[in-house]
């Protein structure tokens, strides 16, 4: 089909991260289709509010303005961080593509090149707790649980702000370290500043972390088809499982819920839900394309209690896998743990 000569309008937030990931996708669309793409800046409530994100309350504070611009026809497509997207499908819009996922892990950016364990031990020797910044209830819950388990002195300091601001707390010496998504660091070219990429056994990422979502008007069939070329079925299946779990827990993007789906190890024999085991084959390259292993955790922000489970299921019905693991978590008291979050 002949492409119209006008450039596609890609709506984006103004932050460095949003601009970087929008430009990456714009370049990819142009490379594949020859179609020019122009970035259109849209300001969102999440960009202007100085409130803690969790206090704004709703999910999707970053995405609503972009969605309105799509529905109003002011832009043709939007690129979102998938982990910021509410799980409810929006009226009139389509999730046209989920491109290949970046590294889903969280990263520690700490002073003096230190990893988490070394940082905590060094501070302990100095007779004080390590001060690590994160405003995410999910990260707080799991890091606090990790610290409790090993009797490690760790003080979690609630912070927010863009990547520059957050890394700035470490550079200034105000904090010993901060936690950020590795994917975000990579997309703005600052991944070399990470001092440890945290193993999902220690810190399960947010559902959808590291993945992008390309959204356009549901009625724009031609654009949907073109954008669909950027879709990665393996990533889409993984994030479908993670988000189905989040939806079934009735939790939002600021809830203390971690989840990660990866292709199941090829040797896996059992397909039934099981308790969490300590094998950690997270390499998609070695995985079985027909099965997914989904791990999830729900915990209190103080790290006092958490439920962590995993299950393996068919990639073809990733949503069912997410829903069944959510049911298992709820049966083990997950709802009560989420309700206890103190913000
Ligand atoms: N909560 C904000 C947000 N949304 C997406 C990313 C990073 C990129 C991604 O996960 O795809 C970040 C920053 C962070 O958590 O450090």
Automatic annotation (TrEMBL):
Residues 8-223 form the Porphobilinogen deaminase N-terminal domain. PROSITE patterns: PORPHOBILINOGEN_DEAM. The modification S-(dipyrrolylmethanemethyl)cysteine is found at residue 253. Residues 263-289 are annotated as: Disordered. Residues 238-330 form the Porphobilinogen deaminase C-terminal domain. GO terms for molecular function: hydroxymethylbilane synthase activity. Pfam families: Porphobil_deam (PF01379), Porphobil_deamC (PF03900). One of its GO terms (cellular component) is cytoplasm. Its EC number is 2.5.1.61. It catalyses: 4 porphobilinogen + H2O = hydroxymethylbilane + 4 NH4(+). The keyword Transferase applies. Belongs to the HMBS family. The porphobilinogen subunits are added to the dipyrromethane group. Monomer. Tetrapolymerization of the monopyrrole PBG into the hydroxymethylbilane pre-uroporphyrinogen in several discrete steps. This is Porphobilinogen deaminase. It comes from Mangrovactinospora gilvigrisea. The gene is hemC.
